[in-house]
Design brief:
This protein has 301 residues and is mainly β. Helices cover 10% and strands 26% of the residues. It contains three helices and twelve strands, in the order E-H-E-E-E-E-E-E-H-E-E-E-E-E-H. The protein has helices spanning 37-54, 162-168, 273-276; strands at residues 29-30, 55-57, 74-76, 92-99, 105-116, 130-138, 144-156, 175-178, 184-187, 190-196, 206-207, 216-226. Strand 6 and strand 7 (144-156) form a beta hairpin. The relative contact order is 0.16. Mean pLDDT is 87; it is low at 3-28.
Length: 301
Amino acid sequence: MLRFIKSYAHLLSLIALLSSCDSNNNPTQTAVELRDYAEQFAEDDALLVEYLTTHFYNYEDFVGAGEEEITIVIDTIAGDNANKTPMINQVQQISVPVTDTEGVEIDHTLYYLIAKQGSRLEDRPSIVDSVYLTYTGTLLDGTVFDRRINAPIWFDNIAVISGFRYGLQFFAPGTSTRGEDGIDTFLNKGQGIILMPSGIGYFGSSLGSLPEYSPLVFNIGIITTKQNDHDLDGVLSINEDPDGDGNPFNDDTDNDGIANFSDTDDDGDGILTSLELDVDGDGVIDDSDGDGIPDYLDSDS
């Protein structure tokens, strides 16, 4: 269900999702009235905080955990579990920007919890990389709306909901080995939970068992990652970020409506980026006029 989603964090129009459901059980999208992003975020965040305050996960099972995967279980703090530590005391959070229909940027809080960090910290994915993972997506009442557990799947982070994209960057992958029987064994993978308001999820989309304006909980396991060069111009997509804010989605040097990481001619001068990077072959990106702007971003070079 996470495939074929809008590329940008600007959630002006959401697309129906098709992935893990088969052709006879595809979710259908129902159009609803678009709500105010700021008001909806406030409502969603209150629900998420309440959820985090009243629920815990089986953190004790992860103490001294070895290489094998441990199933994450979330339950209510009550009865025999009354003394458990609530997730609100364990989560970390970041702000994810969303631009509303009036062009106003509204920060949405994303919560994430690392249950077990993967062994390859250097390979944590950026928001424009690809991730091979398992996941389960649920509503706050525990209803499962999407799941990929037994067969991992590749996702390109530019093509998933922004909450998923921004949350995955904190989880490192593990290692894999292939036995003589051809079966892969995955060890030391990163595991955790991502919780998001609807504004960085599916917002006003109603998809199968997923109601519109639903805060979401994802239980994820990161197996491996891959850095992307989406336009095959020789510059990794994460490095197509001239303003250095860590968000390549908002970099469009020639203002042609195509982000640099998808644009084969970043400066719009009619010369492909790949042909301007290192003409003299010295391994250093060229700046022929010495103005501090690389040739491939400088239409005057």
